[in-house]
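Appendix C: a fully annotated inverse folding record. The material below is reproduced so that readers can follow the format used throughout the book. The structure is listed first as tokens, followed by the designed sequence.
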């Protein structure tokens, strides 16, 4: 009887594990689909952002009325909602300073 109960518990454990594996495979497939959808969504957002960036720079003019070169400037949005056009070399130096601050904190 003890051996029979042991076999029964073992079979129940195996069945539970098989059910868990099946559930995890279903969850994995669901997560794969979700990941794929998010990747496509991110790709579309990047494309829209790229289009917006090009559109903004096509309309920008400097003090003399010449088009602003997107290779030399970047669009910066502050946390307050303000939008600035900043020379790239200033952004790079700010990023270096931020990186140095982060490294010092670590």
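Designed amino acids, in order:
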């Amino acid at each position: 009887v003890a051996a029979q109960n042991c076999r029964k518990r073992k079979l129940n454990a195996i069945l539970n594990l098989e059910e868990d594996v099946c559930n995890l495979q279903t969850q994995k497939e669901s997560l794969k689909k979700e990941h794929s959808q998010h990747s496509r969504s991110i790709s579309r957002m990047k494309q829209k952002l790229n289009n917006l960036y090009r559109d903004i720079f096509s309309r920008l003019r400097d003090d003399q009325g010449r088009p602003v070169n997107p290779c030399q400037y970047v669009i910066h949005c502050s946390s307050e909602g303000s939008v600035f056009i900043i020379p790239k070399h200033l952004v790079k130096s700010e990023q270096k300073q931020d990186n140095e601050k982060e490294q010092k904190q670590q």
